[in-house]
UniProtKB/TrEMBL annotation:
InterPro entries: DNA-bd_HTH_TetR-type_CS, Homeodomain-like_sf, HTH-type_TetR-like_transc_reg, HTH_TetR. The lineage of its organism: Bacteria, Bacillati, Actinomycetota, Actinomycetes, Mycobacteriales. Pfam families: TetR_N (PF00440). PANTHER family: HTH-TYPE TRANSCRIPTIONAL DUAL REGULATOR CECR, HTH-TYPE TRANSCRIPTIONAL REGULATOR RUTR. SUPFAM superfamilies: Homeodomain-like. GO terms for molecular function: DNA-binding transcription factor activity; transcription cis-regulatory region binding. This is Putative TetR family transcriptional regulator.
Length: 208
């Protein structure tokens, strides 16, 4: 299959081609682990030749890192769709629903990336995951209209990042061990975040 036939006969520009390769690679990595995927397989999935794949990404690891970057960052559109007129509890429920929807839809890759301790041993991967945690915290704060006062910004942000750790651990109990179902995880995460927003953050503001 040629690169043109993979896109319905349309020749793509460099940015569109790069995007198309990342999307097709994400589907492959959802089905197989990094070690079990070859560059030849990735090129075939994207409908391009190995030379073109190497031109855009250089190596399988570089392509995988780009896929992970795309996957672990919460899209801004997910935040924009949360109704601002709703109560705080309903907005929190909507935020958690978005989180769980994404985790379920891409559960195989989510488990192999977001939940993997092994990936943290790769400095570049660890940096990507840390950046994703920071972005997720900022977007959650924006969705819930959390506006820290001067002097408490770093502490409040770090608390929301720490809450993200709870969300990952709870999701693991659902997706990996099966000890919790989705409704139980939703209940835990909604009420935990509600307590943080209503009780913990005001106390943090008062101490700053």
């Amino acid at each position: 299959m040629t690169s043109a036939s993979a896109t319905g006969g349309k020749r793509l520009g460099p940015e569109d081609r790069r995007e198309q390769i990342i999307v097709s690679a994400a589907k492959v990595f959802e089905e197989k682990s990094f070690a079990d995927v070859s560059m030849t397989e990735l090129a075939k999935a994207a409908g391009v030749g190995r030379p073109l794949l190497n031109h855009y990404f250089g190596s399988k690891r570089e392509l995988y890192l780009d896929v992970v970057r795309r996957f672990v960052f919460i899209p801004e559109v997910a935040v924009d769709r949360i109704p601002r007129s709703a109560s705080q509890e309903k907005r929190i429920g909507a935020v958690i629903d978005r989180w769980l929807d994404v985790a379920w839809r891409h559960r195989d890759m989510w488990i192999s990336t977001v939940m993997s301790d092994d990936l943290r041993r790769d400095p570049e991967m660890d940096r990507i995951l840390q950046d994703a945690d920071d972005v997720a915290a900022r977007r959650m704060m924006d969705a819930l209209e959390i506006r820290p006062s001067e002097g408490s910004e770093a502490a409040v942000h770090s608390m929301i990042v720490a809450y993200g750790g709870l969300a990952k651990a709870a999701s693991k109990q659902w997706l990996v061990t099966g000890a919790l179902d989705r409704e139980q995880v939703h209940l835990l995460l909604v009420h935990s975040l509600l307590a943080i927003v209503r009780d913990v953050l005001p106390a943090c503001e008062a101490d700053s």
